[in-house]
Amino acid sequence: MVKKMTKSRFLVFAVGIAVIGAGCRPAVDYTPGIALNPASVSFLTGSETEPLRPLVEQYARKAGVQVTFESKGAVDIMLGLKSGDNRYDAIWPSNSMWVTLGGNSQVKEGQSIMRTPVILWVKRSTAKELGWIGKTVKMQDILPANQSGKLNMLVTSATQSNSGASAYFGYLSAFSGAPAVLGEEHLNRPDVRKKIKSFYDNIKHSFGSSKWAKDYFIDHYDEFNSMINYESMGIEANRTLASSGREPLYAVYPVDGLTIADCPMYYVDHGDDKKHQFIRGLQQFLQSPEAQQEIMRQGWRVGAAGMGTASNDSAAFSPDWGVDMKRVLQPIRFPSPQVIEKGLSLYQTVLRRPIARAYCLDFSGSMEGEGQRQVKQAMRLILDPEEARKHFLDIGPDDITVVITFDSEVIHQWVVRGNDPKELRDLNAKVQAESIRGGTDIFLPVEEAIGYFKSIPNLERHMVSVELMTDGRSDSGSVEEVMAKMSQTGVKVPVYSIGFGDADDSQLQEIAKRTSAKYFDGKKDLVKTFREVSGYN
């Protein structure tokens, strides 16, 4: 029997490759007798590995084992391992580096199950115009196309997403001259910083999830001509585009900045031999020819690192889409954990495009107690510089941070420009001292935020967003009033809404949908959800 826990979104980050030979094992039964199996096994996974859960369930059913899944982002996985959170029996992230950064000795025996490179997907007509069809493309070709506006692309966050971090370190390596391994000396070079900042300054949208970026691209197909994402995600996008008769994307592999997600599965050692043997058997099953063939059908590469895999599945690996399964990929060698952490901090504080973000926080009567505590804890993670640094949520020197507290009216509006530690701590102190008031109007603070954004000179230099949090239902106002305010001011802002407690999901989902944003369910863990939302701009 198989039981699933509620899935949460998660952001993981690919920064290393485990070399695993697969596809060469005989067809055997890897499942030990039921009497030798544990009663249950729990998995901590990332979004990249979710499509493979049915194969795990298939194996577990045959073994008579109950399996449960929980999803977490890359930062959460790393922090959990650092804190000694070993409640799971197995961990299946998108890359081994997060486990290395976590430094937990109980996490052992990682085995890569499948792989996918992080590449640039471009509408075929654009790739043809740029002369990239069938050609070798380097970052020195991609950068000017981005700077000139010929590429209008979506990316994922380098500090909150697996694919985003992978691309970032690949491009740093390319702009550094493709060294044997990236070092701090490369991160400190002014010419490298200038190129990478120029690249990200031309990015208008950054998302915390590779899947969401893919879905957003499809839903806003006419607004963009390219995205940086996994090869597997682009294949999935092309299947959708082909079914609706739209122009497909073409795969561009930046040869000097290529990175790969290797999706290793780990055993967490609790001294339980039955669980240990079950997970070892599962790893072998997933690496068997039968399972690897199914994995390949879903658009993943299998086999040894380099992955020059011959595939007859043209539906998944179409040459017309630029996907070359016979090409041997040569990814960069990822740097040390110390350089990884410094690089991510540098991205968050210096190299990414500036952000103007408004936090609309509900302090109505229903927030009394646990709701108020969680909101204040979540904002502490963002406004306390030390806490923000731990979670790669640092506010940058050119960022604009707006906090609007509300009940049935706007209670307070506070603004901090830049990242002066004292100003941020003072703002945090104001939030921590805020008190509970009366009714609820979730639309008024959003209109207030839009009005403030309108007053900012050169707003287009920033990625702009609103984060709306509430545990109730609005007593007044409407989405139509918010849309009218956007139309009146010319400020189009995505409103990422977070509901928890007894929140009216329908209202929050509507405002998110109408503003091309996303609704997040924070009912189980509001603080974790706040961190997740911070990857979307």
From TrEMBL:
Stored SMART domains: VWA
Gene3D superfamilies xrefs: von Willebrand factor, type A domain
Any single Pfam family the record assigns to this protein: SBP_bac_11
Highest taxon, organism lineage: Bacteria
UniProt xrefs under SUPFAM superfamilies: Periplasmic binding protein-like II (SSF53850), vWA-like (SSF53300)
Residues annotated as domain VWFA: 356-537
Protein name: von Willebrand factor A
